[in-house]
């Protein structure tokens, strides 16, 4: 499949795929295994659903009704763009016997509109305004998964985690606050198997982008707080982008900025000394000289002391990977991982951060058992000797080349003096 976020590849038989997915869903709920052809985004969502305690025979609960629902909707940031969403999606939903739905950032449905007969069917599974359809409440579903992973997604029939939802197909896209990037909710189209077409995913994505543009016009963007972007994965000299300027930092300055970005509350001089230098005999004046040079590079107002800290927020590529891992979005985390954090650094604290990030990602890859993700790691420079990953890859994709490489690694490990 060329795009794992699409439910069906071109030419696929939806009836046969639905049958295969039902068998895969049963295998997962009974044994915890995820067979092919379940997409990685769905497999990860199923696992998050189980970790959240969702059962396949559950149902959505209605949390807001009547006046409470009306008051919440009236104050919600998406309320001003509902006329636009209805204009773009409403006719399509009504004519196609589908439903238009909009949820908040917690997966709670705020508006559900569309064909009357379809709405009556949806009512029976509590797909109604005020009901919570987050992944943690009802498992895999398009609006709940879209807000969980922060990107558009289709969910086709038995890809839904709860069985009573499996007759349905849906596509949803998150809507972000144009000023902060925060997810405000999602726009969803729900109906029959025909919505597995790529056009439905593109359609809701376009509607979500139009809603974001309308929000930007309704509330002009104020002067944004200065946010620096730090790129430190897979490179020894980090890049810092701030106010349109890109600065290549020296190796020592890269270590300092990585550590201060990880500790926005700041670090004392003694803490920085311990974090940066293996040799405890390094005098504080050495560190102060490095910090003075770094302050000259960044600008005096961006690095202050007592404790040492950066005065602007920093978004690092390592933080992005960590955040996606915490959300259970393994595919997204792997795509953001460009290599080990400052791989040449011997600063003790950087080594700990580097090891923690790499171990967390590789453990998630092994647990999710997606052959493509495992292969990407195994064939990367940092994974070519990773025995555990090669074993996991051989278990799900036992090609001759994989078995050969695994045998070579195991032979090297068993050789006298290997460790």
Strand content bin: 5-15%
The total domain count is: 3
> Cα-atom Rg, whole angstroms?
25 Å
Quaternary state reads single chain
Helix/strand-derived category reads alpha+beta
The largest pleated sheet is described as:
5 strands, antiparallel
How many distinct helices? 17
> How much helix is in the residues?
40-55%
Calculate the mean pLDDT score and round it: 89
Q: Would you give an account of this structure?
A:
- With 419 residues, this protein is of the alpha+beta class.
- It folds into three domains: 14-218, GAF domain (Beta-Lactamase), CATH 3.30.450.40; 225-368, Arc Repressor Mutant, subunit A; 370-419, no CATH class.
- The chain has 17 helices and eleven strands.
- The strands form three sheets. Strands 2-1-5-4-3 form a five-stranded antiparallel β-sheet, sandwiched between helices.
- A hairpin with a 7-residue loop joins strand 6 and strand 7.
- Helix 4 (82-95) runs antiparallel to helix 8 (198-218) and helix 15 (371-378) packs antiparallel against helix 16.
- The chain is globular, with a radius of gyration of 25 Å.
- The two termini are 42 Å apart.
- The model has no long low-confidence stretch (mean pLDDT 89).
């Amino acid at each position: 499949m060329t795009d794992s976020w699409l439910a069906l590849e071109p030419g696929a038989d939806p009836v046969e795929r639905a049958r295969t997915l039902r068998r895969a869903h049963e295998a997962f709920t009974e044994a915890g295994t995820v067979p092919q052809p379940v997409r990685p985004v769905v497999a990860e969502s199923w696992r998050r659903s189980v970790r959240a305690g969702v059962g396949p025979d559950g149902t959505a609960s209605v949390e807001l009704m009547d006046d409470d629902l009306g008051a919440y909707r009236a104050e919600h940031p998406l309320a001003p763009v509902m006329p636009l969403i209805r204009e773009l999606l409403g006719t399509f939903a009504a004519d196609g016997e589908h439903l238009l739905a909009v949820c908040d950032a917690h997966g709670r449905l705020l508006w559900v509109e569309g064909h009357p007969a379809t709405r009556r069917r949806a009512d029976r599974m509590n797909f109604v305004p005020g009901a919570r359809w987050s992944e943690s409440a009802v498992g895999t579903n398009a609006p709940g998964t879209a807000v969980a992973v922060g990107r558009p997604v289709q969910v086709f029939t038995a890809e839904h985690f709860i069985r009573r939802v499996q007759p349905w197909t849906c596509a949803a896209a998150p809507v972000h606050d144009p000023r902060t990037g925060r997810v405000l909710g999602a726009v969803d189209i729900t109906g029959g198997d025909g919505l597995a077409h790529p056009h439905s995913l593109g359609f809701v994505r376009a509607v979500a982008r139009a809603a974001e543009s309308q929000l930007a016009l309704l509330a002009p963007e104020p002067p944004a707080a200065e946010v620096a972007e730090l790129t430190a994965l897979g490179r020894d000299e980090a890049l810092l982008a701030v106010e349109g300027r890109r600065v290549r930092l020296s190796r020592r300055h890269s270590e300092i900025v990585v550590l201060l970005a990880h500790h926005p509350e700041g670090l004392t001089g003694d803490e920085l000394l311990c974090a940066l230098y293996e040799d405890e005999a390094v005098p504080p004046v050495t560190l102060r000289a490095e910090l003075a040079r770094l302050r000259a590079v960044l600008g005096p107002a961006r690095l202050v002391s007592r404790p040492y800290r950066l005065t602007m927020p920093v978004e690092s590529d390592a933080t992005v990977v960590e955040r996606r891992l915490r959300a259970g979005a393994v595919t997204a985390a792997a795509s953001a991982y460009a290599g080990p954090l400052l791989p040449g650094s011997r600063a003790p604290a950087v080594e700990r951060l580097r090891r923690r990030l790499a171990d967390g990602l590789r453990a998630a890859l092994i647990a999710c058992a997606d052959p493509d993700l495992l292969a990407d790691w195994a064939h990367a420079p940092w994974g070519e000797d990773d025995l555990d990953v090669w074993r996991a890859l051989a278990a799900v994709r036992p090609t001759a080349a994989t078995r050969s490489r695994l045998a070579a690694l195991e032979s090297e490990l068993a050789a006298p003096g290997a460790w």
